[in-house]
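G., the chain you wanted modeled:
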Amino acid sequence: MLSKRGAIVALTFAFAGFLRAQSPTVSESSLCDLQSTVPAGEHRPVRVEGVYLAGSQGEYLVDPNCSYRGTWVEFALPSQQSMAHLNKLVDETKNRLHVSGDGDPVLVVFTGQFYGPRAPDPSLPEEIRRVYRLFAPGWDPANNAKTKIVVDSIESAKRLPRGHPCASTKEVHWPCWQTAPASP
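Predicted structure as tokens:
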């Protein structure tokens, strides 16, 4: 007969195995690939690296190789500890200079659900659904982001290294938020 402790250990391992079997496979992809390949109306679990931008217009994830496409960011974190670290990095310059405004770009690795563009309403006429992707509303209020990520884990967050294509300069605060690709 199992002791109470033995039964608890056995149940813990059994439950952990069950959770592993239930967990969807997380794909590790580049942000640019995700933005161009996840179909409208679909989502998938991902692990992705990018540059996190937080400002008055919202929160976005960008990549210098496709900086003309931002992904809207929403957080569904089980704990606020990693969010506090991210916010500290974002607000570093504002706090040092005692100013308000957009935050510093931060190099991050997020895991979560990545959503493709919004799907057209099936009740729309076929002619409109065919061209919907050209005029589809974005996920963000400003209608800039055709994709979004719902972050359930912040694996890493650190300052951008000096010389990174997305690092702010005196002339341009967010060089990776533009309409043409940033040059590396």
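Residues 4-23, 179-184 have pLDDT under 50 and may be disordered.

Shout if anything looks off.
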